[in-house]
Automatic annotation (TrEMBL):
The keyword Phosphoprotein applies. The modification Phosphohistidine is found at residue 54. This is Hpt domain-containing protein. It comes from Pricia mediterranea. The keyword Phosphoprotein applies. The lineage of its organism: Bacteria, Pseudomonadati, Bacteroidota, Flavobacteriia, Flavobacteriales. Keywords: Phosphoprotein. Residues 15-113 form the HPt domain. It holds the Pfam family Hpt.
């Protein structure tokens, strides 16, 4: 398991509906954001890469995905500074793999929400 519900549980204070809501939003939004991020990378769009990495970062942080958070932050910073796209794109496969793994785990652990 590469995610943790510690932060969500702390915020939820025992509210199972809140936890399920956060998981649902993650499952709805983050895979689409990841897909959009891949398109923005293909298009070499620094602004869009920055925006999407910035949007993904708090979502993965909420699930305690430290490695994914670090990758999103790195992509966000590089895109903001208009770094070379090869450098930015090199980070993406790890981020994608981590998110896809957590999405699969969450669907198993919380199905059906």
């Amino acid at each position: 398991m590469i995610y943790s519900l510690d932060k969500i549980n702390e915020m939820a204070d025992g509210d199972e509906d809140f936890i399920n809501s956060v998981i649902s939003v993650f499952l709805e939004e983050v895979p689409q954001d990841l897909e959009d991020l891949e398109i923005a990378l293909d298009q070499k769009n620094h602004r869009k890469v920055y925006e999407l990495a910035h949007k993904i970062k708090p979502n993965v942080d909420l699930l305690g995905m430290e490695q994914a958070r670090a990758s999103a932050l790195q992509m966000e910073t590089l895109a903001k500074n208009e770094a070379d796209f090869a450098e930015i794109a090199a980070i993406f496969p790890g981020l994608k793999k981590d998110i896809q793994q957590v999405v699969a785990e969450l669907k198993t652990d919380f199905d059906p929400l």
